[in-house]
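Researcher: Structure prediction, please.
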Amino acid sequence: MNELNRKFVHISVLLFVILAQFTGRWVAAFYFLFIAAVFIIYSEHIRRERLRLRGLIRRIEKDFRKVALSLERKEAPLPFIGAFWLFFGCGAAFVILPMTVASAACAMVAVGDGLSTLVGRRWGRSKVVGSKSWEGTVAMFVACLFVGTFFVNPFVSVVGAITATVVELLPETGPLRKHKSIGVVDDNFLVPMAAGVLMLVASVF
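Model: Predicted structure follows.
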């Protein structure tokens, strides 16, 4: 699997966050939740193979499936489960959180999570927990702090960056690792929600 290609899914979230600044939170929430629904429905189609296509349509669908699956981890419990949680988490963030906080939280998971994986795989030497490295963890914090300041003040961004960095590690810990392996717990959902909620609390002060 090409990890760089897979991270394009994360970067696409950043494009929707930027779009949200012009369209408003509800339009952005709709886009995120709609895409999440598409991912989970198509995942079920692949898993169960209920839909029997014929001829040219079937060949086109198979070619599309091959490209789409190249963006997913081979060890994923269900096809596109990570992408589903990513877009669902961002959609939920835009529904329940203020525009600026939701934008910061989703930008953090888009850039921070993507950069941490790339840095960790390329330069990661010292493990924090599971497959996560100190190098990738530091990269995530710096990236989250940087992108967060485009939407919220520095103090709130620091709170969000710390939260996102810590929460991103949680699915690798013992109690949650089993749930992650079956797709129930995913950092793509936990990061924007936890970072967003704590940034909202921090913004009060």
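Model: The chain has a mean pLDDT of 80.
Researcher: Thanks, that helps.
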